[in-house]
């Protein structure tokens, strides 16, 4: 499966998605966008949790991996068990969100990437959303970034 990468930027209180070609150097890419008036969008853990809730409940997407900024085998195993529980019973999404909110608030543990898969309408989707504003998605579903992810991030960033 082929994937595309997009970087989320803000400009004039709007979120913009710009394709990122990995053959170019990342910091040069950022500087070029900055010179054009764009500012990086960083996706906070609370926004990632909001995306988790909406993508799971509204679009039926399944979370399949959560990565944290810090390596913690115990926490990774706990998340894996919760994710497996969700696959058996979708109601466990509430427990996962509560646990992530607790970790974020009380332990200052931040999510670096969250991965989802599923089907939106007739399109199979595999998407990874990173805290640095990078969105990685399978080519067949790349329109989902503009049609679904961008508006959700826009609401989360600008209200």
Fold and architecture overview:
Strand 1 and strand 2 form a beta hairpin. The chain is globular and about 45 Å long. It contains 5 helices and 7 strands. 43% of the residues lie in helices and 30% in strands. The longest helix has 16 residues. With 159 residues, it is of the alpha+beta class. Strands 1, 2, 3, 4, 5, 6 and 7 form a 7-stranded antiparallel beta sheet that branches.
Helix segment tally: 5
Question: Can you give the mean pLDDT?
Answer: 94
Distance between the termini: 35 Å
Q: Name the poorly predicted regions.
A: none
- Based on Cα principal axes, name the global outline: globular
Please give the oligomerization state of what you see: single chain
Main beta sheet strand tally, sense and closure? 7 strands, antiparallel
Q: Helical proportion?
A: 40-55%
| Alpha-beta content class | alpha+beta
Beta strands, count? 7
Question: What is the radius of gyration?
Answer: 16 Å
Instruction: Give the helices and strands as they follow along the chain.
Output: EEHEHEHHEEEH
Give the DSSP E fraction (strand runs of 2 or more residues). Answer: 25-35%
